[in-house]
Specification:
The chain is of the alpha+beta class and 165 residues long. It contains 6 helices and 6 strands.
């Protein structure tokens, strides 16, 4: 699917406000409502827009511990990666997991009730014998920036169409 400047404006607008009205979205995109809505549906169908979410201020609900964790597996066979990734996907407190190149295999973002809850989660991972060789824990002491809006217009040069997979 080719993305043009209008598609990028639509993507930017719905990222910033998932509850935007059809009329307001059309105004931001520079289209009339029906063609704008059709483009939005096409972006959804193509899998470019994967969902709409509310950002929750967890600390307003209860005190929480935010933890970043580096994980290195002992073995690097495909089955080892798959087993670890299946386990991680099933744990709600692990809110993000990235497979990375470099000195570690994964970086995880974990939100737990407190440090004890985090340690129980780690103990559970280790007890399951998922092949974790070593891990390092980084406690988040202050959120400096945590943006959920992607800078989609910076992905393409001005005036250039972009192909999406």
């Amino acid at each position: 699917m080719k993305l043009d400047a209008i598609d990028l404006r639509i993507l930017d607008a719905v990222q910033r406000d998932g509850r935007i009205t059809k009329l307001a979205l059309a105004e931001k995109a520079g289209l009339s409502p029906t063609p704008c809505w059709m483009r939005l549906r096409k972006l959804e169908k193509a899998g470019i827009i994967t969902g709409y979410h509310a950002r929750i201020a967890a600390r307003r609900i209860a005190p929480v511990a935010s933890v970043m964790m580096e994980v290195t597996l002992a073995n690097h066979r495909q089955a080892d990666f798959e087993r670890f990734e299946r386990a991680v996907a099933a744990i709600p407190e692990i809110v993000a997991c990235w497979s990375v190149g470099g000195g570690v295999d994964y970086i995880l973002k974990i939100i737990a009730a407190d440090i004890d809850a985090y340690q129980r989660l780690v103990d559970g991972l280790l007890d399951r014998e998922l092949g974790i060789d070593r891990y390092f824990t980084y406690i988040v002491t202050k959120v400096v920036k945590e943006e959920t809006v992607l800078p989609v217009s910076s992905f393409v040069a001005d005036g250039e169409e972009q192909s999406a997979p």
